[in-house]
TrEMBL record:
The lineage of its organism: Bacteria, Bacillati, Bacillota, Bacilli, Bacillales. It comes from Halobacillus trueperi. This is Transposase.
Amino acid sequence: FLGLNLTDPVPHHSTISWNRRKRFNGSEIFQEVFDEIVLQAMN
């Protein structure tokens, strides 16, 4: 789903942390994604 092949390097874990702290600070996007995943799992 990320467009990566099995042999491709994955993004460094700090990239996600940086985006969460800096880029999406004050945003509810992570909660919205989580809620959507839970709803899909329940259906």
